[in-house]
Amino acid sequence: MYGLINNSLKSMIIDKFGEQQWQRVLSTSGAPEDSFLTMRSYDDSITYSLAGAASEVLGAPLEACLEMFGEYWVLETATKSYGMLLNAAGQDMIEFLGNMNGLHDRITNTFLNYTPPEFFVERKEDHYLIHYVSQRGGLTSFVVGLLKGLAKRFDCKLTILSLQDIAVDHGEHTVFEVEIVAA
Amino acid sequence: MNQPLDIRWNDLHHLFSIVMCIDESMTVVYVSKTLAKCLPAAKNRPRLLDVFDNVRPASLVTFNDGLKALDSLCLLTAKNGKFAIRGQLLRMQYQQQDVLCFCGAPWLNWINTNCPETQLGFSDFSAQDIQLDQLLFISSQKRMVDDLEQLNTELKAAKQQLEEAQEAQRQFFAQMSHEIRTPLNGVVSALSLLDHHLTDPKQYRLVRLARSSSENLMQVINYVLNVSKLELSPHQVEEVFSWPELIRSTIDVVAAKAEEKSLQIEIDLSPDLPQVCYGNPARLRQTLLNLCINAIKFTDTGTITIRAQLLQQRQDHCIVRLEVTDTGMGILEDHLAHIFEPFWSSRLEGMAEQDEGTGLGLDIVRRNVRSMGGEVMVKSTPGRGTTFWFELSVTLSVETAALSELATLQQQPEAEKLTGTVLLVDDNETNLALGSMILESMGLDVIKVDGGAAAVATARQQPFDLVLMDISMPDMDGLEATRQIRTFASSDQLPIVALTAHIDSKEKAACLKIGMNDYLSKPIIREQLNKELARWLAKDKKPLSKDAGEGVKFRDEVLATELVSESVINELIRQIGRDNLQIVIGKVRTEASQRWNELLTADKQGDKDATQRHVHSLASIFRSVGLRPAGDALRAIETTLRAGEEVPPGWLRSLEKLKTDSIIALTEKMEEPLIPSSVVQIDTN
């Protein structure tokens, strides 16, 4: 993963729990570095160990930590650093979901050697099916947080009706059945 | 050239979000959805230049201008300042007429800069357009710069913290050095005084153990402070130093210990060694001192040789090899790999426990030598002795050339007899008597005065070739006297050389600053004095006796373990004769008794300045005639007094016995038959 992700995780823990807790997370994770550069690629294991250590230090399930991180990612990291791009990606939740994959296409072009996930949105009669396909595993909860963060960004009500894992050879494919209601 | 393209209309809209057709009259006849949304005025068939300003190409007034720019980037900004487009012109057919077809996208960079409120979405850019990627890239780069700036700030703060911590540590060590060494010096001095007065063997053993333990503790503390000092400031300020003086001052420290073990100390300086160099004399002295202490510790009989050889000399620097060789027990081969490790100490058979040491000296040696850019080496033969050596590159001092010439003169086989009149200044009668006898024996005329004020008056009244000036004198000290003399006689007209019992770097600097030409340490060593005099006095060419004209290679004294240094007595007899020495010793007895009474009075009256002055004077008297233990004990007290520290209780009582014993021993020594001089000269030729 790029340093952008690790830095965001660090910022979230410092913002929400303080510097001391971050130092404990860092120490527990055994990560070899305490600073990350946005555009530098780091081994995925560092990100996983930081997330695991956060769960241990904060005494919360890993899923809850990842979900919190997903929300933080949308509302803080992406909004502060990539506000203009987020604006371009959509003025409402539906438009944004429609451009999610296009956004990740752009990311692929910028962050070389990074394999971002793919998103496909199917519009059903009264709900949506969001397909999340990733070469990595274990980040479904992070996507849940992303969706919740987007709902807050666009001031709408999001209900996840179901999550369905589709068997794949590598990584994960999850289908989120969501209901979106404008506030 | 410029033939219409055969391209499908729908394909264009897939590839480009902005499509705009302009007919031959330069009227906009078609706009795509994004352009219509962002610039509604364009929908109303305006003339191109009524809604847009052309940035590139520079001219786009006619249809022909457009045809000429088909291969160029086309940048257009809306007249209303709210939108801009970037793309390329194509020649096409639209509704059966020739048109210029603009194919491109919103000009994102311009819009973000000039009208960021303009809302654009992903659908306003085709998938292949890289402008959104650039936006992502630019945002990420900005974050990257922020990361680096943040790191830089953190590093700066960490560096500052580290420097502050280092400074605090430096100050702490300086304070520690003072706080720890002061009381410990008191302990060592007190034990040293007590040592001489114990008759009960058990008490003597216990005090000796306490003394060696306190000395070991002092070594450990010095080690810790030295290592810390080296680590905190690996590069000390360099200064000019003289090799002979450096080595002699090192020997001075260990001479008493060597004397205790009846060891010879031999100095061997190669004749071509530059007299004066530029380097770190304090670190060099500490290094040689540690090697000498070790050599003496592990040698029971024979000689310790300190050798300095010039290996190579260039224009501005030279390479010098320094060696300390002993004839001691040697080091086992499998121990050689460990001897530089801190706290490593090999207990050797027959070695007293108190002589074991701390195992830290060689570690300091290695650290010191490395800090000066060298590496210390060792070779040893068990049972025959050990040699430690290192080679250093040192900078040549500007004085070296001049002194080299002098050294060359000194090495001439025919020595030169000195002539001239010397003004000898000292408040101490013994020193005046002794000094004048030595100077007269060299063929010089001597005028003696007993204080600074008298020196100034005498120097004003009559011409002298040289002044030998004591520093510590009660009425007017040597520095003030020199300052006054310099008001009427320059250093060229009248050289003044300090002659003082103890001289440290601060005092040396003070001497030179006030206008003295040089300095010499007491007790007077004839060879040193002779060299110094040769620098300043006119010479005739009459040869001196062979022993007085030695080169730079000589052996030092054989040192005995007595209250009276036999070697000093023999040397004095050699210099001034037995009869004259008897006269001097008579003066010593009288003056010591008088000074002692004055000391008791000053102590009783709590007059610290006078106490210190009388202690200094007594130390000087005793050391002049080889009463080293008494002189050293007095000097230790003087050092304590000078530092403003408390002297051990009962010090006067302890000293009185030592003083009385020493004078009795001196008197007895003079009644013994003459013992041949233990100063061995080596013929340099």
Structural class of chain A: alpha+beta
What share of residues of chain A is helical? 55-70%
The total count of helices of chain B amounts to: 22
By DSSP, the count of extended strands of chain B is: 21
Tell me, rounded to a whole number, the average pLDDT of chain B.
79
> From N to C, what is the helix and strand string of chain A?
HHHHHEEHEE
Largest sheet of chain A: 4 strands, antiparallel
With strands numbered from the N-terminus, the spatial order across the biggest sheet of chain A is 1-2-4-3
* Helix and strand composition category of chain B: alpha+beta
Total number of strands of chain A: 4
Number of helices of chain A: 6
Report on this model:
Helices cover 55% and strands 19% of the residues of chain A. Chain A has helices at 3-17, 19-29, 44-58, 62-89, 93-110, 140-153, and strands spanning 118-123, 128-134, 156-166, 172-182. Chain A has a four-stranded antiparallel beta sheet, covered by helices on one side. In chain A, helix 1 (3-17) runs parallel beside helix 3 (44-58), helix 2 crosses helix 3 (44-58) and helix 3 packs across helix 4 (62-89). Chain A is globular. By secondary structure, chain B is an alpha+beta fold. Chain B is 48% helix and 18% strand. In chain B, the strands form four sheets. In chain B, strands 7, 8, 9, 10, 11, 12, 13 and 21 form an eight-stranded mixed beta sheet that branches. A six-stranded antiparallel beta sheet of chain B has the order 2-1-6-5-4-3. In chain B, helix 13 (429-441) runs antiparallel to helix 19 and helix 21 packs antiparallel against helix 22 (651-671). Chain B is elongated. Mean pLDDT of chain B is 79; it is low at 347-355, 399-415, 540-561 and 673-685. The A-B interface holds A 3-4, 7, 35-39, 81-82, 84-85, 87-91, 95, 99, 102-103, 105-107, 109-111 and B 112, 116, 119-125, 127, 130, 132-133, 135-137, 139-144, 146-148, 150-151, 154.
